[in-house]
Amino acid sequence: MKKFLLMGLMFISLAACKKDKDPAPDLATRASGTFIATRFIYQGTNIPLTGGTEIAIILQKNTAETVNGSLRLKMQGQSTTEQSLGTLTVKDAGSGMDLLESGIKVGSISSDNQLSVSGEDEDGVYEIIAKKQ
């Protein structure tokens, strides 16, 4: 009888142990995806994305904390250019993530998967606001 009682207690104690949850995905996995621009601001002016114009930013996991980025532009529905954005480091920013290039923040991803990227080219300053697809 003692054996059955002991075995019963062991079974209950094993069944009561918490099972470990699956670990949360790493930052690069969470950041990866295709983001389609909803707004494009250039030199402080909102540029409408109409007539088949589409800006897509693609982030692909490289390591647990880095992604490879590229920007694809379509004009009148036709792909015109694809430009490498290089390797970006992904950092936890509390409610979202920051994207850094050589230690300098170039963008962020909010908790609702909205991407904001800003930069400067030879002609001026731009900002792209995009939503994950």
Report what the structure shows.
The protein has 133 residues and is α+β, with helices and mostly antiparallel strands. It has a single domain (24-132), classed as Quinohemoprotein amine dehydrogenase alpha subunit, domain 2 (Lipocalin), CATH 2.40.128.120. Helices cover 15% and strands 56% of the residues. It is built from two helices and nine strands. The chain has helices spanning 2-16, 27-31; strands at 33-42, 45-47, 54-63, 66-75, 78-92, 97-101, 104-109, 114-120, 125-132. It has an eight-stranded antiparallel beta barrel. Strand 1 (33-42) and strand 2 (45-47) form a beta hairpin. The longest helix is centred in the N-terminal third of the chain and has 15 residues, at 2-16. It is globular and about 55 Å long. The mean pLDDT is 88.
Secondary structure layout plus pairing:
Layout lengths: L1 H15 L10 H5 L1 E10 L2 E3 L6 E10 L2 E10 L2 E15 L4 E5 L2 E6 L4 E7 L4 E8 L1
Antiparallel strand pairs: 1-2, 1-3, 1-9, 3-4, 4-5, 5-6, 6-7, 7-8, 8-9
Keywords summarizing the entry:
single chain; Lipocalin; alpha+beta; 8-stranded antiparallel beta barrel; 133 residues
